[in-house]
Design goal:
With about 90 residues, the chain is mainly β. It has one helix spanning about 85-90; strands at about 5-15, 15-25, 30-35, 35-40, 45-50, 55, 60-65, 75-80. It has one domain: Jelly Rolls. The strands form 2 sheets. A 4-stranded antiparallel beta sheet has the order 1-8-3-6, with no helix packed on it. A 4-stranded antiparallel beta sheet has the order 2-7-4-5, with no helix packed on it. InterPro entries: RmlC_Cupin_sf (IPR011051).
């Protein structure tokens, strides 16, 4: 049996959803399809929408709010569960 390299999750909401100290246990890419994700990071408030991606290294705890737009919030998270296979790295250009 093989170990999965990736995990893809879809998040959907119809109300504002505050989330506190969410542990990002593995490197993750988040992109918002509809609405906004407000992130509090080192005394700053950052806003992510469909025009931007959020790249998060493993081991961080994040506080954010998922804010619907026109009654809907939709985002995806792609989590990298394992390093890429060695053959992928050896064939990469320098």
């Amino acid at each position: 049996m093989s170990t999965p390299l990736l995990q893809l999750n879809h998040y959907f909401g119809i109300r504002e959803q505050p989330l506190h100290r969410v542990l990002i246990y593995a490197p993750t890419i988040i992109w918002v399809e509809q609405g906004h994700k407000l992130l509090w990071w080192q005394d700053r408030r950052l806003s992510f929408d469909k025009g931007s991606w959020l790249l998060i290294p493993a081991g961080h705890q994040l506080t954010f709010i998922n804010q619907p737009e026109q009654g809907k919030f939709s985002s995806h998270a792609l989590t990298l569960l394992a390093p890429p296979p060695a053959e992928w790295l050896s064939s990469a250009p320098p």
